[in-house]
Amino acid sequence: MKKPIDLKLTQDGFDKLVAEEVALKERRPGVLKRMVEAREQGDLSENAGYHAAKEQLNYIDNRTKHLKIMIRFAVVVESVGTSVISFGNTVDVECDGTKQTFSIVSAQEADPMQGKISDVSPIGRALIGKSVGDHAKVETPDGTTVFKVVDIRI
After folding, report:
1. pLDDT at 48
2. What are the start and end residues of each CATH 3.10.50.30 domain in the chain?
3. Helix (H, G, I), strand (E, B) or coil at 10
4. pLDDT at position 147 over 80
5. Tell me, what's the pLDDT at 4?
6. Residues 35, 28 contacting (CB under 8 angstroms)
7. Could you read off the pLDDT of 85-130 as tens digits, one per residue?
8. What is the CATH T-level fold of the domain 90-153, as seen in this structure?
9. Residue bearing the bigger pLDDT, 95 or 2
10. Architecture of domain 7-76 in CATH?
């Protein structure tokens, strides 16, 4: 059977998916109970509590299905080391005298506000394969940005 998705994750990203699935499974019985209690109140057409619980239950069920698929087909990829930047590394770079730290993760884990950038993003693609002291050029709408690699960590 061909895999429906090719999902690579860091160990941290995989652990977060599993934790979210567990949390949703624990939350489901309470939402189901609220839905049943709201349904017992009678007329469902104007019962906001029933409709809210039904929406929550629908979200939980759909998200759980999605998470199960992601967990089933996920491949945890470990960083290959610190001599060159690869998936899973944390990197300190310098740009115009400003130091920034990025963690190279999958698109599913990316969170630029937390310094987690995708390996397929323009910055991620430019950094992968670079060593300490190398420069990575990234084309942006504002022009070319150059990052100097200062440190590579796992």
Report:
1. 85
2. 90-153
3. coil
4. yes
5. 66
6. no
7. 999 999 999 999 999 999 999 999 999 999 999 999 999 999 999 9
8. Chitinase A; domain 3 (3.10.50)
9. 95
10. Orthogonal Bundle (1.10)
Sheet holding 90-95, edge to edge: 116-118, 98-105, 90-95, 143-153, 135-140
Please name the helix (run of DSSP H) or strand (run of DSSP E) that holds residue 91, with its range, or none. strand 90-95
Instruction: Show Cβ contacts of residue 133 under 8 Å, excluding neighbours closer than 6 positions.
Output: 148, 149
Q: How far apart are CA 93 and CA 90, in angstroms?
A: 10
pLDDT digits (tens, 9 = 90+) for 40-71: 887 777 788 888 999 999 999 999 999 999 99
Alpha helix ranges (H) inside 74-154: 122-127
Q: What is the pLDDT of residue 2?
A: 63
One-letter amino acid for residue 143 of the chain? G
Cα gap 136→125, rounded to integer Å: 9
Residue intervals of the chain classified under CATH 1.10.287.180 are 7-76
Counting every residue written for the chain, the total comes to 154
Alpha carbon dihedral 100, 123, 69, 66, in 10-degree steps, equals: 70
Cα separation, 4 vs 8, in Å, equals: 13
